[in-house]
Amino acid sequence: MSTPTGPRAVHAADPDPAAREHPREVPPATVARLPVYLRVLRGLGERGVTTVSSEELAVASGVGSAKLRKDLSCLGSYGTRGVGYEVDYLVHQIGRELGLSQGWHVAIVGVGSLGRALANHSGFAARGTEVVALFDVDPDVVGQRVGGLVVRSAAALEADLDELRVRIGVLAVPAAPAQELCDRMVAAGVTSVLSFAPTELHVPAGVDLRTVDLSTELLVLAYHEQRKASSAAAARTAAPRCTDLLEGAR
Amino acid sequence: MSTPTGPRAVHAADPDPAAREHPREVPPATVARLPVYLRVLRGLGERGVTTVSSEELAVASGVGSAKLRKDLSCLGSYGTRGVGYEVDYLVHQIGRELGLSQGWHVAIVGVGSLGRALANHSGFAARGTEVVALFDVDPDVVGQRVGGLVVRSAAALEADLDELRVRIGVLAVPAAPAQELCDRMVAAGVTSVLSFAPTELHVPAGVDLRTVDLSTELLVLAYHEQRKASSAAAARTAAPRCTDLLEGAR
DNA sequence: GAGTGTGAACACGTTCACAGCT
DNA sequence: AGCTGTGAACGTGTTCACACTC
């Protein structure tokens, strides 16, 4: 996942003696959990809770308390020993770290059933991001009103993305046209891409890419099912007691 | 991602003396990549390719060749030194490892716009899994035909899931009812859950849970955007040359 | 007493480099 | 010669345990 070590090259012949460290370097695993903490904290705040301990917040977030404290300590010392964390303040700090309050402009390319679902999905446009445009190639879809926006023609992709200052693009198209549309988004100034296309995409250095592959998720579960099935079968032949393989949460 | 460290207990007071180790233990990180290799290999097969080297397959899959070889070596020695891997055979072996050809029965709970998109999504029902039922609480939705299936009432959830032998459940509902519906699926015999609900779910030991949180994905990208923006700003004040932060792939 | 912040130990995952087979 | 399979080195992420603070 990218190489967030500041503006420094990473190529082979570079001993990288003293890469000037940026003030705060948050590890990727932690970044991936911050949105979860944020959501849980907002929920607590709405229910009038003003203070939480790491243990409480950890349980509600489905992680261990030590991990949670270490994650939060990346952002600074925002807790009070013997007491816990102030909910509102923590929400503010996490939001700051994630770069919310910037209102990043997001565009969705591909208004099939998935694109439509994303456009309507409340909370997909989380606080801090705003879907400002939808694109599609199908002339029948172009011009339709979806989620309060009029679908634009993909022909105008570059011009529109540039004009709207879109930095984050969501790809909800089939595998075949995905790479080409991805390239065009990047050419138009998009530097972060979230793809739902079931194919491997290649992006130039400096562009962040995240891929959510729905069928992959299912196949991973199928693997676990198979393991459980064969374990159960093995246990059945061996011992009368079965179904007791435990697991952690998450 | 659960705790797939074999059939080993994780709870406090459980020494679990001799958890019988199963023949092959595939690390979770590898399991998550197998579906990608599988897709790439099928694509190659359809284009008439019969043999690939680890390097070629690695590039096409967006990983390093050493990683790929190590992943494949978990399944056995299916390559030929000096030559590469036979595409068809590898497809077969990966499919075997993932437990395809079992035709796992999948149910989707929640037929809003996202549930609809999933039901229609070709390839969401990947080979090896089959969506056999849709459920919703809304009486207006119940009875509708979606993706070739008639939407059932959530009232009959337990009975229907049990009767249809559903082991894998997909939750495409809002946060509020998610936990309750998850519990009911588990009570009806579901042992793997894929949730799209923006909330933390708790499942009993022995049940696998994967959560895909769309807004989290966006916020992670927002974080990277912010870093890029501030790096660029810093570089602009420091040196005349900018936009040269390199990055690895993925 | 209660609970945070953190070094130190540990587990997991990735990369390297090369031995060994075809 | 070419490419797989894998031990060994490395880096990242998690867990433990406790010093320190309120």
Question: How would you describe the overall organization of this protein?
Answer:
- Chain A is an alpha/beta fold and 250 residues long.
- Chain A folds into two domains: 28-98, Arc Repressor Mutant, subunit A (Orthogonal Bundle); 104-212, NAD(P)-binding Rossmann-like Domain (Rossmann fold, 3-Layer(aba) Sandwich).
- Chain A has helices at residues 28-46, 54-61, 65-73, 87-98, 113-120, 157-163, 175-187, 214-238, and strands at 51-52, 79-80, 84-86, 104-109, 129-136, 145-146, 149-150, 152-153, 168-171, 192-195, 208-211.
- The first copy, chain A, has a six-stranded parallel beta sheet with strand order 8-5-4-9-10-11, with helices on both faces. In chain A, strands 1-3-2 form a three-stranded antiparallel beta sheet.
- The longest helix of chain A is centred in the last third of the chain and has 25 residues, at 214-238.
- The radius of gyration of chain A is 22 Å and the shape is globular.
- At the A-B interface, helix 1, helix 5, strand 11 and helix 8 of A face helix 1, helix 5, strand 11 and helix 8 of B.
- Chain A binds a DNA duplex (22 and 22 nucleotides) through residues 27-30, 53-55, 64-67, 69-70, 72-73, 77, 79-85.
